[in-house]
């Protein structure tokens, strides 16, 4: 998911350089959304992993 966020970020940068403001804004919005989803999933898996590690020990 982080890969796709980076891809959309690069698309936003390239389209902004070329002057396509609408496409740049849309790609940046998608990149932000994917990054937030990645962070949320990462934190949930981190918490679950710590919780399961404590139960085993």
Structural commentary:
This protein has 2 helices and no strands. It is mainly alpha-helical and 57 residues long. The protein has one domain (2-49). Helix 1 packs antiparallel against helix 2 (21-56).
Question: What profile does the largest beta sheet have?
Answer: none
Q: How would you describe the shape?
A: rod-shaped
The first-to-last residue Cα distance is 32 Å
Helix content: over 70%
The tally of structural domains comes to: 1
Q: What does the average pLDDT come to?
A: 91
Number of helices: 2
| Helix and strand sequence | HH
Pairing-aware structural class of the strands and helices?
A: mainly alpha
The total beta strand count reads 0
Poorly predicted sequence stretches spanning 5 or more consecutive residues: none
Task: Quote the beta fraction.
Answer: under 5%
Gyration radius from CA atoms, angstroms = 17 Å
In short:
With 57 residues, the chain is mainly α. The chain has one domain (2-49). Helix content is 93%, strand content 0%.
What's the topology here?
Layout: H1 2-18, H2 21-56
Helix pairs in contact: 1-2
Provide keyphrases for this structure.
0% strand; single chain; mainly alpha; 93% helix; 2 helices
């Amino acid at each position: 998911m982080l890969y796709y966020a980076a891809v959309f970020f690069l698309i936003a940068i390239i389209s902004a350089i070329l002057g396509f403001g609408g496409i740049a804004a849309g790609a940046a919005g998608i990149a932000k959304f994917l990054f937030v989803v990645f962070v949320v999933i990462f934190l949930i898996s981190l918490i679950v992993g710590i919780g399961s590690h404590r139960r085993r020990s």
